[in-house]
Prior knowledge:
The complex is a heterodimer of chains A (about 190) and B (about 1250). With about 190 residues, chain A is of the alpha+beta class. Chain A is built from five helices and seven strands. Chain B is an alpha+beta fold. Among the domains of chain B are: about 1-100, no CATH class; about 430-605; about 1015-1125, Sandwich (Immunoglobulin-like), CATH 2.60.40; about 1130-1235, TATA-Binding Protein. The interface between A and B is large, with 71 and 84 residues.
Amino acid sequence: MIKAILIFNNHGKPRLSKFYEHYTEDTEQQIIRETFHLVSKRDENICNFLEGGLLIGGSDNKLIYRHYATLYFVFCVDSSESELGILDLIQVFVETLDKCFENVCELDLIFHVDKVHNILAEMVMGGMVLETNMSEIITQVEAQGKMEKSEAGIAGAPARAVSAVKNMNLPEMPKNINIGDISIKVPNLPSFK
Amino acid sequence: MALKIVKGSIDRMFDKNLQDLVRGIRNHKDDEAKYISTCIDEIKQELKQDNIAVKANAVCKLTYLQMLGYDVSWAAFNIVEVMSSSKFTYKRIGYLAASQCFHEGTDVIMLTTNQIRKDLSSPNQYDTGVALTGLSCFVTPDLARDLANDIMTLMSHTKPYIRKKAVLIMYKVFLKYPESLRPAFPRLKEKLEDPDPGVQSAAVNVICELARRNPKNYLSLAPLFFKLMTSSTNNWVLIKIIKLFGALTPLEPRLGKKLIEPLTNLIHSTSAMSLLYECVNTVIAVLISLSSGMPNHSASIQLCVQKLRILIEDSDQNLKYLGLLAMSKILKTHPKSVQSHKDLILQCLDDKDESIRLRALDLLYGMVSKKNLMEIVKKLMLHVDKAEGTTYRDELLTKIIDICSQSNFQYITNFEWYISILVELTRLEGTRHGHLIASQMLDVAIRVKAIRGFAVAQMATLLDNAHLLTGNTQRNGICEVLYAAAWICGEFSEHLEDPMQTLEAMLRPKVATLPGHIQAVYVQNAAKLFATVLRKHDGETESQAAQETSQLLIDRLPLFVQSANLEVQERASCILQLVKYIQKLQQKNVEVAEEVTALFAGELNPVAPKAQKKVPIPEGLDLDAWINEPPSESESEDEKPKAVFAKEEPKHSRSRHTEVDEKELARRREVRKQEQANNPFYIKASPSSQKVYDAPGVEHIPVVQIDLSVPLKVPGMPMSDQYLKLEVERRQKEKAERKKKEKKKKREKRGKERKADSGPESEEDITPAHQVDIVTEEMPENALPSDDDDKDPNDPHKALDIDLDKPLADSEKLPVRTHRPEALKSPAEDRDSESVPQETKKKSGKEKKKDKEKDRKRSKEEKKKKKKHKEVEEELLESQPEEAVQSEETKEAAAPPTSTSAEQEVCVLMCVCLQEVTAPSSAAAAVDTSSAAAPESEPDEPKDTEPEDTKSSKHKKKKQKKEKEEKEKKKKKRHHHHHQHHSDAGGEDSVQNGTVEEEEPLPVSQSHSVSLKQEVKVYDIQGNHQDESKVVVSVIFENKSDSFLKSMEFNVLDSLNSKLQRPEGAGAHDSLTVPFQLPPGVSNEARFVFSVQSIIMPQKLKGTLTFIVKSDESSTHEKLDFKLHFTCTSYLITTPCYSDAYAKLLESGDLKGSSLRLEGINMPFHHLLARICFHHHFSVVERIDSCASMYSRSIQGHHVCLLVKTSDQTVSIDAKCDEPSLLGNVLDEIKQTFSKC
């Protein structure tokens, strides 16, 4: 079981938090802070597993994380998950984001948390891995996106226009995470489906 | 219209959307909180608007704010609104918000049931998908119960996308609603072979998750998984399955043997590291499970270790970490194969990654043996010196101590070496673990007798050099070792070479800067040393030395007498006075040494850590009882302090117990002495203090002198390394010697090793340098051997420990729901009607057993009750493993419900559930008409007899009564058709519900009975917990006619004692309107509250129901009479009671007794108890063999206690109650219950 999925940046600002067990908002924030504290002081090139047991649940739990440019992707899982499998899953998640946002960067995650949640929902459901095949995930996400567009119809057009205008005067839209650049050696699952 | 939409959206586009909110927050870095609070205000405004788009936008923003830590639960209702939008876009926003912030405590969740159900059956797969995803995050027990069947249907959906989600969510449903596991499991199992790999993977996922917690229930699936494992190519699935096998093999070694080969093949063939790793892990698990029986798997072990070595040597830190992790598992059973890779592991200690270093340390822990302990610790000591950062160094320190002290110092052959290590560790700067070292020193010195001389010498040196340890205030942690040093020197002072010098060191003025608890130990042990010094000079007349010592103490102790620490002060003043007195005696040349020594005679033995916990509570001792009554609130402030100090006589009669305890203690002391005398590991206290000096066992240790000589000459601190050399030499020497006199040695050794530490025989070639007595800890006599204190009682998976191989009983159906009849939709009724059974559709019969079902939401009051009762009900269920009724139904039940028939089955079921819920304390009474109706209209109905039986048996349990009434109408033609139908259903109904009223059809109704239409009522009479004089009666109205019934009015003729509660302003004889109408074939339930004054007698109330029958041509006014029977048991509330409280209650003497004998009861005792519990609302307090005490309480607080005994078909019930007539009536009712079975 996956207990929680957290994305935060190098400064500990949460970009996405998904808890599969209920905690109060305060506890959630504390968990995010502590996780950031644990993860951020680790060097690059050391292992991606951390026994963070005390945070969520018991000693059965592990933190498995990856660091991409400005973002940390942290999965808190229990012993039923394969460590390397989850690392792969994170990779699939990021690659999927990359495809869906076309060269994803932190700003995409900042402004479109809802979309990120929707993508995640196609991969992990209620703490269990639902789908690991990237093309399948993207197909479903796109189909839902299409539905959304068709529902918006005429009515959606002006809203989209306005939002485009609003985005125009956004100087801070640089695309600044290239996942491609940071090649982390993924122990690959050849028939990973 | 379109224009309007466009206009609306133009208005909206200037609303702040999520992106604007985020942007705004980023632009207000300085006053973020303030900005967000204005945003929240805006959101609140938006939520008030009718436009769903605006609301959705607001909810979307709230979801973002929730992530930032803002509580948005206040918007829960709006979230539900957005969820129920018909547009997918908004629905998804709503479900996302719900999944982020709903939880079991969210009360609006109960409003979502229908919406979710609707979405689940939506033709659009994404509506369904989004609902499943959301539900997976916030499913509650209620939702799980209500939706389980819908989800199960989705498991066979045509779209794999839905199937896989439905399969996955079943796990959550099982967790929340364990009863669903068995009915749903067959289908889940089917899904393991689903053509779609995603669905298959989901099913594997769910089953693995289930099996991980309760593996034994899933052993039967092993062949299926084995097949999957050899055929699947999906690595995710393979990993899960292989992990699952890892959990199964310990339970079934044969499985392990089969697995080895395919796993080995996978290890050789796969290129995926994750899969390789999991295979290795499972092979290890298999080997562990086989380790006892099968010797010949060294090839597999070698393969694993070899592969792991490759992982550990990899440059990828992740692989290295996992390699070490897996290695540690092999270590437990095959330490030898790991030990050959010691080099690699020691190398990992130098890794820059702390996680890896820690893992390597863990491995070392298991790799030590007698042979290599010294060497490994030496390496660790080097690391300690090198380590930067106190955290890791502290970790090393604790590991060194762990490694050395593991399993009772098993691997230590030379304790002098260990003491030296400990002393060296005290040189660490700034460690937090001073106390750890101290406790080790104490432990070793106390438990290894032979080492005491050496330890004392070392400790004396430490004390002498105490300034080195305490010089720097930052090193505070380490001064804890002085505590140990002082104590050891004092306690074993007979080993001191120069006690005078040590005494002097302990009384230095500098000591006063140490922490208080250490000073206290110093002072106390100074006194012990003093005693030793006196003893030493015993016999010498006019001993100058002895008098000097007294003088020294008298000079130095005043410093401690002034200490701010109470403990130090107290001890110092006592000892000071003592010494002054001794000095006087000395001056008179009186021999004092012996008396002073006697003060400290005897030995202190180590006590096991859990000893305190395991002291059995003496019988009759109630730890929760007050010894003194707590001061009452009203007591004035100034009186309180008095009470604290005054030795008041205990107000309770506790003294009795203490007396017993004294005697008991004396007796136990004797027993313990006996035990200790027979225990070879127990160091006996020497009978007289003098004998302490020649400790037994020391003299026959030949090696001691050799080792002692060297280190003692070292003036400063000892060097552990020297021992390493010495040890090597010693071992060589011993080896040579042993060769010479092998035979002789053997015999000798056996004698010696009697009490020695228990190293594994494999290492017998290394004899310890010291033959040591390792003292096991003391445990209290009668200690309970239970060690299972660490199970979590709240683990939700416990409930899922269910046997899945048993065939499904008919009772095990998922609750299914009926379509709600349109006519019933009046808002007041809304909820109730959900569960209204529809007569017309009664195919089912099968589902009835769902006794456990609780009602869906009702009024809050009911909910509360429900909670209380849940426990009770569960208890009941357990105690009633087989319902009497069940067996009769099995035939019908055999066929599992198919999805098509499901709907039809629902209605009847629901009716039952409903009832039961309403009557939490009793099982609900469902009513059946057939028995009543059939005799009149169709006496030859074949099913009649069966229902009667079952009904009656069940009936007893419950207090409910039901009545049936039949209504007559003219339409005779239809009679046949209808009747058949009814009686059919009726028969089945009755079986499930089983309650039949003895009142039978009322005379009134019979007189009427011309036509076939009937109306049935079921009553459940139920005490109200909140109010001692209220009783709630649930009535089910069932329309068996084919006409429409409306304007029903319910009235009861009040008696003096019992009155129907009418709304304010209504007259005493007004009738109450039943808040619904009944279309043909429909039933519904209404509840009425009665106020009751006296509950000690059963009573009957007469009542009338009037209603209008509307048929095609006409409408007529009809009337139906009935009787309500309030039994005494309906006033009882199941209340748990603890046996001590129960005993007290019986002792109190307030209760009057009565008894009852039942002959010819031919049922197992637990059924009997269950029956009493169930029908009469008792709870079992205690059960011993064929005797049980039971308790219940009436709504007015009368206690009813039963003592039920059975022997040979005779049951005797002795009962006590503070109200004799109530008791009499209850017993009568119990009798009646059993007379019917």
